């Protein structure tokens, strides 16, 4: 079966869950090969990639790859596409992944599909567009299919691969070196999972009422091991930091479970969450548009419903 390249997303040597998802997806369509861009691959990371099906791990360990923003990653992949003629290239549909995908498409004269939520036979991708109003099935017709897949689109499954390591040397162009990373500032991270990667997201909106009351949302999130999200109304009011905003102008999430509390379901909010597998809405207005989208709905005051839910979840742990 033809090789499918998967660009590895990692943080300090730890392989991110989305990469395991992409390897699982790649396995259903061909032979997965992981591409590690930059220094710092560890034996644990190699073992993890092999555990999820990587037959080959291409390692480009030059620090140049990570010292010049995203362009070198696109050049690395373009070089591998030329050398290995893979059936497809999969990247995570993160901000960086999508930029790499776009640059790679130009370099290889190929078609690119972004924000796929599924990928099937013949590399036909599923996308959900116009705020979730339209589902699109699309296929690249030119060059090597390059597909950016949203985190949480596939459940990662183990199926050991050989994990054979192959060192790759990349000859970067001057253009790829034109922007240099001069400083890295580590983001303060709490104990909660990263919003775009989390399997469960609990979001609060204007109905939460104040910054202090977001502790109700956080309480449920912590009981479920979930990430916290917020509507733009809540972030604009200063109740929750903007980095947690879900929607058209915020983050796009695609978790297994999305709980929207005190959120009306405006189209711009839906755009960021409507591909969640299961949606639960808690809203005191039975006519709130979010109920049109929800799999389960609770009509009630979130300040009563959410603490009860948290208590029940905690009891069952
Ligand atoms: C260009 C553009 C981009 C945008 N991008 C985004 C985006 O990325 N993300 C985003 O979220 N929005 C975005 N918006 C804003 C969007 O249009 C809505 O204004 C916003 O999503 C509303 O947030 P909300 O649902 O929290 O507030 P509201 O629409 O005010 O809804 C609050 C809901 O809470 C319910 N409620 C109130 N009190 C309670 C209670 N005690 N218990 C239970 N329910 C209660 C109400 O019944 C209501 O349904 C964008 C708008 C524009 C124009």
From TrEMBL:
InterPro entries referenced in this protein's UniProt entry, alphabetically: DHS-like_NAD/FAD-binding_dom, ETF_a/b_N, ETF_a/FixB, ETF_asu_C, ETF_asu_C_CS, Rossmann-like_a/b/a_fold
Q: Does the record carry NAD as a key word?
A: no
Q: Which UniProt keywords apply?
A: Electron transport, FAD, Flavoprotein, Transport
- Co-factor binding details: Binds 1 FAD per dimer.
Task: Give GO MF terms, alphabetically.
Answer: electron transfer activity; flavin adenine dinucleotide binding
All residue ranges annotated as the Electron transfer flavoprotein alpha/beta-subunit N-terminal domain in the record: 4-185
One GO biological process term: fatty acid beta-oxidation using acyl-CoA dehydrogenase
UniProt cofactor(s): FAD
SMART domains per UniProt: ETF (SM00893)
Query: Which residues make up the binding site for FAD?
Result: 206, 231-232, 245-249, 262-269, 283
Recorded coiled-coil stretches: none
**The keyword Electron transport appears for this protein:** yes
Its annotated function is as follows: The electron transfer flavoprotein serves as a specific electron acceptor for other dehydrogenases. It transfers the electrons to the main respiratory chain via ETF-ubiquinone oxidoreductase (ETF dehydrogenase).
Listed under subunit, the entry gives: Heterodimer of an alpha and a beta subunit.
Q: Record's family?
A: Belongs to the ETF alpha-subunit/FixB family.
Q: What is this protein called?
A: Electron transfer flavoprotein subunit alpha/FixB family protein
